[in-house]
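STRUCTURE:
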């Protein structure tokens, strides 16, 4: 969760000069993670890694939005 969340925040902060590109890149990263998270939902150990990645994306987005305001 921390790795993905920090990656999203750093990515958003680096692209903060152009918010449209930042949003598009964030959506692209999330779309890239979705298949891996979806496929890992049936495996006991990977289920928790997938859940952590999903929570990290959401937490990173919330933090990035909080940095804007």
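SEQUENCE:
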């Amino acid at each position: 969760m921390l790795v993905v969340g920090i990656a999203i925040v750093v990515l958003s902060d680096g692209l903060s000069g152009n918010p449209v590109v930042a949003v598009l890149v964030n959506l692209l990263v999330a779309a890239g993670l979705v298949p891996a998270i979806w496929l890992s939902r049936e495996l006991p150990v990977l289920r928790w890694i997938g859940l952590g990645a999903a929570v990290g994306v959401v937490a990173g987005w919330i933090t990035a939005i909080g940095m804007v305001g």
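REMARK: DSSP finds three helices and no strands in the chain.
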